[in-house]
């Protein structure tokens, strides 16, 4: 599926019925690189509880409109937030240890958050679209392994982003984010 993010088309890459969902999860992790670049060397902390609350409020509201259980959707997004902070702290550590690898430009956090808000809507759409397959535990586990495995190869994820991806998808098949309202 072609999902316009930031005006630019992104092509569907990861395989199987959870491929598009996984692509969006990876996209959000990549945006976390930009978040880290916007905060590194500034007073902005990696942890921003007020912003997290705003993200989760948007999630609960839009989930309800879609007929997804708001708390299950919020649980999925708490994992996305945890995964984003895994990426951010990993990159902070990397850039502190090797300043030559640190970003030389500082993107605007406000613009990045607008992009994250659009990804929230797209991710919720995919939670809705995958409700059926996510509800069947064994097929879901197989599809998730296929999607994350192919995304890891095709997107050339490094160890940090692979670890963050595992964190981000860990409740996809557990029923946590599955239930209809
Ligand atoms: C991505 C950010 O960093 C953290 C992660 C968040 C997220 O994944 O949505 C929200 C707030 C921060 O705790 C941010 O500050 O926007």
From TrEMBL:
Top-level EC class as recorded in UniProt: isomerase
EC number: 5.4.99.5
Keywords in alphabetical order: Isomerase, Signal
Pathway annotation from the record: Metabolic intermediate biosynthesis; prephenate biosynthesis; prephenate from chorismate: step 1/1
Protein name: chorismate mutase
Protein's GO biological process: chorismate metabolic process; salicylic acid biosynthetic process
Domain of life: Bacteria
UniProt-listed PROSITE patterns: CHORISMATE_MUT_2
Single GO MF descriptor: chorismate mutase activity
InterPro entries linked: Chorismate_II_sf, Chorismate_mutase-related, Chorismate_mutase_periplasmic, CM_dom_sf, CM_II_prokaryot
Short name of any one Pfam family annotated for the protein: CM_2
The Chorismate mutase domain, residue ranges: 1-92
